[in-house]
Structure formats: structure tokens, C-alpha cells
């Protein structure tokens, strides 16, 4: 890595006992005043907390996961409109202890449990109990309003015939609620309370044991895996040429994901190209040329220019501590006089080096790539969904940017050759030989950043020799340099839950780690009924 080190070498395991495989790059983040003083951001960074009301969970899976002591997983068709009423409380600032308000009819009986909450390893919690009667909903609501809480834990009594008006009294709670049943052999009334609260807009999960409740509290108390990551997109704000996101804002992105993002004009990046040391860029070019199996129809000028772009982006990323970058490339790549070189090769190298480099200024695609790369510690293949064969449950994924180290940063790079962009005799793209029959996952955040679609699959075949594609119309004319067939679980259901034009693919499984990370972000997981990958 040219002595710079790999971002994945600086990882720290945030909650080892519960979130195996979830890591944090640990990139230092400047505070808002420093950013303003250094002139790195043109806008003041405003911090907004996550809106917890928007998690969505279906009752059937909720009961199933309660039995399995796992995190609740939601299926499509269960969306709940977010509530606009006032929030109960304001969460503590980052670094402060999280307040866990425990409501119970018998505080004395749960003193030991409260002590366990306060001593959870890896968590900074202030858990305390308040005695309430679950037959007096007004008393409960008043207690919640009066107490500062980041997490609400409702410890139910062993038997209650009905919770009366409590069912409809908590719709304005924007803090996560955990309902702990104390009678695992008689949960039907408790489950009905949970379903009713959720149906009225509350964010609720269910626990059948103290151990499960401890696990859920710890996940909710941990920082989100993307918290305070920084990203820059070069292009018009939320107005990508191919994937606009007009309903999102920088504040909204931060609220839902914890990522601080900023837009910069493409012309600003272009003006910096002349500052790049051409000698360093030539070394990068020769590295690509030496390691490639073949170089076909790549203009020397274009080759050097994209290596200069890589050097420039790498310096910006290091200087500003960025975790992700994107460029509205389709705004200029088809122009006869592009303002920047085609960024495909630069993005492939950045992904191998642990930096999310997302295509086409796709905000949701960038966040999806960043999320999956952080969880799995592997570079991702961000790709177009070209077609879906529902009968055979096979999808076709295609794009011009593919990392060489899909197997992981320490694995050997995959074999590749270089050729021109879409056979137009300009630009340069890598055609990478994917490992056939390997397990993969594909997915992405929804356009409103309320849910994450995740699907298991297995690579079947690959369309090679894309440099020889016909110049006419048809499939081979339109595919990108890297095109693969992937067998997925239940393609019909997959097709009805596609998050957008871009899918993000990772080699391997990682379903439990991804589920935990999404739960900690209060994000809804959408997927097949069975996450077992298809057979080879």
C-alpha cells in the first residue's frame, strides 16, 4: 500500500461479545469548528439524532426471532408510516452514558438485572428502574415523559389479562422500546401489546429472557457502524445524472445512517488535476500494466489521466479522513471532451485499499457499499441489475468497476485484463475474473434509508471477453466489463424488493453480523424467508 497502510489494519472490535465481525476503521474525525477553521467544509455540520420510529418489523418473524434469541427481522409489506408527534426525550450526546429506563411493577425483584445492565462490558449505560402499574397507562406515559431515556425497557408482569389503553398510548415514542416478557410459557398477551404498539408507530422489539434483553440493549447502546463516517460526492447535490435522490438531504442522511456527507463541484476536482505529480501517476500506471494479463485498446493518455485521478483522490481522502467518495461520472463520460477521465480504474484501486468508491454519485449506493464494506471488511462490487430470470432464480449483474481483492484485503488479487470503456476506444476499465460458484450477498438501502434489502446468492457464470463485444445493439453491446450471472434465493421476491438501479455485492455470507449492525442503526432488514444461499 505504498507505505500508507490499509484502513482495515486500524480496526477496532466495538462489541466483541455480541457483534462478531463488526469493525470500525477508526478514521479520525475533526469537529465542526476545526472543519470550519480549516476550510474543509463549506457548510456547518449539524448533528441530528436517528429517528427510531421508523423501524419496521413483521409480527411473524418477530415471534420467530424471539424464540431463537435473535434480532427481529422484517419482511416486505409491513411498512408503517412514521409518526410526526413530539418525541418523548432527547438522547444523550455522543460519549455520554446511555440512559436505560426500566419500567417494572416490582423493582426489588430486578435489582440484580439492573446491576447486570450497568456492568455490561463494552457499553456505557445508566440503567435504573421505576415502579409502575401496567394497568395505569397514564402513569406510564407520565413517567416516560418525566425521565430522560435513550432506551426504554418494559419489564412486564408474569400475567396480565389486558393492557387496556396502553396499546394506543405510545405512538409518539421515538426511542427504541424493548418489551421483556417474564413468562415465556404464556406470551400471547405480551405479544399482542408489542404488535399493537408497533402498529401505532412505536419502535418495539420483544425479549423472552433477561439474556436476550441484555443483548438487545447492548446493540442499541453501541454506536452505529457508520457513525461519523465522512463522505464527499463530486456533483450537484442529490441530483446525480443517473440516480437522483431529491428527497434526501445531508441532515436526513446523518439522521438515518450517521454518515456526514458533503457535495463538491466536479469542476473543483478537475482544477486540482494539474497539481498531481505525473511521475507518481506513471508509477501507478506501470503497476496496472505490469499486473494485468492483457491491455487492449487503452489510449496511453487516458491511462495516465485516470492514474492521476487516483493519486488526487487518494491524497484528498488521506487529508480529509474520508471513508467514501463518489463522482457523477455519467455527467461527462459520454462527452467528446470530458472534464475528468473515466474514474473506473481509480475506483477499483481505492476499493482494494479499503475506501468506498461509489459509481455515478449514487447516494444510497454509496451508503450501501460503505455499510457492507465496514461490516465485512471486504471491497464490494457495486453493479447494475441487468435482468432477472424469475423461473430459474438467476439475476445478471454488470458494471465497469470491480475490485481485484473481492476475497479480502489480504487475499491474492484476481486475474484481470484492461480494455477501453464500453469499447469506445477511450477510457480504461478492468475486466476481473470472478470466482465462480462462490457464495455472495447482494443488497442495498432503500431510497428513503428506512430499510436494507439483503439477498443471498451464488455466482454461476461470467461473460468474459467483453472487449470483443459487438458494436451493434443488444445485450453484449450494453453490458459493462464485468458481467456475471448470480443464482439468488427466491428471485421473484428479490425482484419485488430491489432497492434501486445499483446492487452491492460482497463475497461471503455475514448475515448475522449484518442483521446486528442494522438493528443497532434501528434499520429494517428486508430479505427472503430463508437466508440459506442457493446450492452450487
Give the arrangement of secondary structure elements.
Elements: E1 12-13, E2 23-24, H1 32-38, H2 59-67, E3 98-104, H3 111-118, E4 125-131, H4 137-146, E5 151-155, E6 177-180, H5 188-199, E7 204-207, H6 210-221, E8 230-234, H7 250-257, E9 260-264, H8 266-272, H9 278-291, E10 295-296, H10 300-320, E11 324-327, H11 344-352, E12 356-358, H12 363-376, E13 381-389, E14 394-399, E15 416-419, E16 429-432, E17 439-445, E18 451-462, H13 475-478, E19 482-488, H14 491-495, E20 502-507, H15 511-520, E21 524-526
Parallel strand pairs: 3-4, 3-5, 5-6, 6-7, 8-9, 8-11, 10-15, 11-12, 18-21
Antiparallel strand pairs: 1-2, 13-14, 13-20, 14-19, 15-16, 17-18, 17-20, 18-19
Helix pairs in contact: 9-10, 10-11
- Rounded to an integer in angstroms, the radius of gyration calculated over CA atoms is 25 Å
For the biggest sheet, the summary is:
6 strands, antiparallel, barrel
Helix proportion range = 25-40%
The chain-level mean pLDDT equals 83
- Judged by helices, strands and strand pairing, the structural class is alpha/beta
**Distance N terminus to C terminus?**
35 Å
Strand order of the largest sheet: 13-14-19-18-17-20
Tell me the strand percentage band: 15-25%
**Quick one: how many beta strands?**
21
CATH topology of the largest domain: L-fucose Isomerase, Chain A, domain 3
Question: How many structural domains does the protein architecture include?
Answer: 2
| Uncertain stretches | 8-94
CATH architecture of the largest domain: Alpha-Beta Barrel
CATH secondary-structure class of the largest domain: Alpha Beta
